[in-house]
Structures are given as C-alpha cells and as structure tokens.
Amino acid sequence: MDLRQTKTSTLQTxxxxxxxxxxxxxxxxxDSLHPSEIARLLESLPLAERQIVWDxxxxxxxxxxxxxxxxxxxxxxxxxxxxxxxxxxAEGMDLDDLxxxxxxxxxxxxxxxxxxxxxxxxxxxxxxLAYDEDSAGGLMDPTTISVRPxxxxxxxxxxxxxxGEIPEGTDSVFVVDRHERYLGILRFxxxxxSDPELPVSDIMDKDVPAIAVDTPDVEVSRLFEDxxxxxxxxxxxxxxxxxxITVDDVVDVIREEAEHSIMSAAGLDEEDDLFxxxxxxxxxxxxxxxxxxxxxxxxxxxxxxxQSTIDKVVLLAVLMPVVPSMGGVAGTxxxxxxxxxxxxxxxETSNAISVLxxxxxxxxxxxxxxxxxxxxxxxxxxxxxxxxxxxAAALMVNMIVAATAGYSLPLLMRRLGWDPALGGGVVLTTIxxxxxxxxxxxxxxxxxx
Length: 449
What we know:
Elements: H1 3-20, H2 23-31, H3 35-43, H4 47-56, H5 62-68, H6 71-79, H7 83-90, H8 95-102, H9 107-116, H10 119-129, H11 136-139, E1 146-147, H12 153-163, E2 172-176, E3 182-187, H13 188-193, H14 200-203, E4 211-212, H15 217-227, E5 231-235, E6 241-246, H16 247-264, H17 278-304, H18 307-312, H19 315-319, H20 322-343, H21 352-382, H22 385-415, H23 424-448
Parallel strand pairs: 1-2, 4-5
Antiparallel strand pairs: 2-3, 5-6
C-alpha cells in the first residue's frame, strides 16, 4: 500500500470512528501518527469534526501539529484555544518551530512563552524572529554545536557525550574560529572513524559553504537540492555562525512552493482552508472570476466590432473559436515553462534572448504545421479555399503572439515585483482571445466582403 492509500485509509478509519462515537479508537489512531500526518488529517476534516479530533489530541504534541497546519486552519484552531492551552502547546518545541508558531499567537501568549524560556533561548528566538520568515534566517534553528579546528577528535567526542543529546537532524559539527566565524564542517562519519588523536583541522571539510542569513528560502532549497545537503550552517554578514538549516525545513519550503504554483495559477492561496465557510471561499474566488469576466467582455467587444462581417459570412462564426483556443494552449505552454525556469533560476540576462528565439521558433513551427492541418480540414469541410487560408493565417499569427506573450508575461511580472504564477493565465488568455478574434475576423472582413 502506497503513502496516498495509507493516508486515505487512515482518514476513512478516523471518519468511521467519529461517526460511531468510538473516541478511544480515534485517540489510538492519533497516537500512532506523526504530527505532520495529524495536521494533514485535520485539514481534511470539516470544522465540527476537526474540533472533536483536536480536543482528543495529546497536548504534548499539539504545538508540533499547529506548526504543520496550513495558516488559515492554524488560525482557526488557535482562535478556539485558551491562553493557558496555547502556552502549554509551545512548551518544549524546537526554537525554529516555535518562531513559526509565535507569529500567529496572541501578544499576551507570546510574552508568556518568551518569559518561560531561559535567557539564552530567549535571545536565540528573538534573533530568528528578527529575520524575514521566507529567508534563511527565518528558516534556521539557532541551536548549533560548534568546535575549534585545533581541538583533538577525542575531546570532541567527550564534549558530545557531555551534551547528553544533540539537536535533531544533526549530521555534522560546525567548525568555527575563536571569533565564531564559520570554517567548515566535521562530519560524524569522519569523527567516528578517524584516529581520535588527530585535530579537527585534519579531517574537517572546508568545501561546504555556509548560507547567508538573508538568502531567500527558495534559493536555500535549491542549494540543498544541488549539493545533496542534509544540514547547512547559516552565517551573518560577518561570516559568524548563527544557526543551521536542516533538510526537513527545506522539504516544507519545496512543498509550499509547489502548492503555491498550483493555487496561484487559479488566483487562490495555498493556505486557504478546504472547509472554510462557503461565503468566505465564494468571496475569495469572486475576485478572479470578476477579472476573468472583464477580460471576456473585452474579447466579446472585439468580436462585436465585426458583427456585420459575421452576419454576411456565417462560416466565420463556426470556425471562430479555433484560433483563440489554439493560441491559448500554446501560450499556456510557454507561460508554464518560463515561470518554472524563473523559479529555478534558469533564465538570466545572458540567455534571455536565446530563450525568446527558441519560443518564437516553436510557435512558428507549430503555427505552420497546425495552420496547414486546419486549412486542409476547413477546405474538406466547407469547400471554401478562402476560409481555409484565413483560418491558417490567423492561426499562425496567434500562435506566434501566444509564444511571445507566454515568454514575456512572467518576465514582466517579475520585473514589476509581482508573482509570475499569479494571474498570468488570465492575462495570457485575454491576449490570445483578443488577437485571435481580431486577426481572424479582420482578415475575413478584408478578403471576404
């Protein structure tokens, strides 16, 4: 059974237990799950059932579950929790997770949580909260283990044993100088298999670069992917070690970016609650529906300019949807490819013209090929060569325009500081509809009347 089937089975088991009132069974199911799995299940439950399940959750794990929830779902759960319950949920959490949670907690609860921490943890937490949550500083855990390069490995081993426990996800020790400037890493595998009398400097890896604290989280995830990292040091502007990022934090960023790309294409927010009130969801979706309606009226206005042409040559009305439809698909292909390339950092000034030439060439080749096919089908269908030629010409023009728009829109939106994934499809559809209808009907008016 794969992971998706397991999740579905667990959800069905939980729903069945709720329906029959078997609360002990619900509690046992929750106790067997990881906090992230509980969070996904809560997001899959209607509001009433979600509250029942939350009340049955062991308070020891409630803070970890809150962090894993989508923002809107988390805010809804927090609203129904008392201050004492929120403070209890925050106890014992890792500082990086606690920093994510504190952003959404009431001010009074935040103060109480900060007061409950010792001075060192309080300062570390404030350091994390000072950075943008979408940066390396916002992702990092300020709890690190570091050693000096001149220390023997035997001393490092004794030091680690004295710690009692090490931070979760630790696969190496960071090496720093006496000013806490990052020098490299000492991997546990090297530490455990090397001569204990050797100094750290002999076996440390100096080729693993640290991540600047202001690096965007998307760039951090790319670095982890490119270098197959499990953890990485975070340094300030002076190169001093201030925290670490582990692969579990990066996986969250990758998932959020994937959800963002999918949802933004429809003008939605990946943090929206699936079971939000109907009026709330309807209001959110109405915005982009209204924008789409306005663009549809623009396309209708262009068609209306050629009303007399359509009245005289009825065949144009039959074939009219072909040109904008083909252009829309071709443009969406280019838009998706360029948006992805921007997200991966594959487009720069040095190769932008080459990418444009490639997209125009693809549009031209596809335009010529499909124009030929459409003209042949039109000729066989209506026995009118003029109509076939007009459709073919309009299709070629719109395919090239669509490729150009699909390439240009993400770059323009990025330059303006907008998210290329948000609303690009609506603008693209407007362009291909207006150009498609305008060129097709314009050529019909020019050559058939």
